[in-house]
Amino acid sequence: MKWNQAIAHYKSYLHIERGLSENSITNYAYDLYKLVQWLEANEIVISPIQISEKTIQEFIYQIAKVVNPRSQSRIISGLRGFFNYLIFEEYRKTNPLELIESPKIGRKLPDTLSEEEIDQLIAQIDMSKAQGHRNRAILETLYGCGLRVSELLDLKISDLFFEEGFIKVTGKGDKQRFVPIAPSTIGHIELYKNEVRVHQAIPTEFVDTLFLNRRGKSLTRAMIFTIVKDLTAKANIHKNVSPHTFRHSFATHLLENGADLRAIQQMLGHESITTTEVYTHIDTTHLTKVMEQFHPRK
Question: Which residues are catalytic?
């Protein structure tokens, strides 16, 4: 079995059996191709079935010189999953990464914005321009519903169930969930939809897409990042703010105000509660207040 053939089969497995998104599958394949390129550069001719632990160790040793521990850990995890797949399909009996440890890395806690900072950032939007209403609706939706950027871009008008107080969100692996939406967020979306979007010339394939660019087509991830970065600079906020920061803030503020972690997990669309715990980083002051309020021995 050749590398390209094995990787192609693995990608199909990740899509069909694991239900992963195209972005995730592309990232897994990218790390595998790094190994293939390294083998070719060093004139090592060996198949994925025959490659040994020693060869993998040498590859890991070399990449450790050029990538940070977090990236190194991700590559090792991706390779381990690939060889586990080959074992599952009975191409191999052992995993050459079984005894290779990932570098120790601390849990990366994302930046969050306070409610005041979010208000300050949103206040920088120029509402005198037509796109101002769209941008306000975008940020209110990111923060009000805790969406990923990809979920925001895929949001359809047919996904809006405002009378019921929910929106239907298509997450990773095309898994769908219903997320509650606040009346204030509904108001900003309705204002954009009825006062701005309705006046646009929209190509047929984008008629149901909620958020559009000036040409009536879908927005890109880069455009959302640019909007957020520009507003952050204008608000003079010195944090690493991205569209995902609103998702972090959504989860953190819910938890700080007493929301159940399981409920937050459902709204974020996380399979594992551990993932939710990373997004819902809270400070020690809040933990102290919880202890003082709820522990019987105060």
Answer: 148, 172, 244, 247, 270, 279
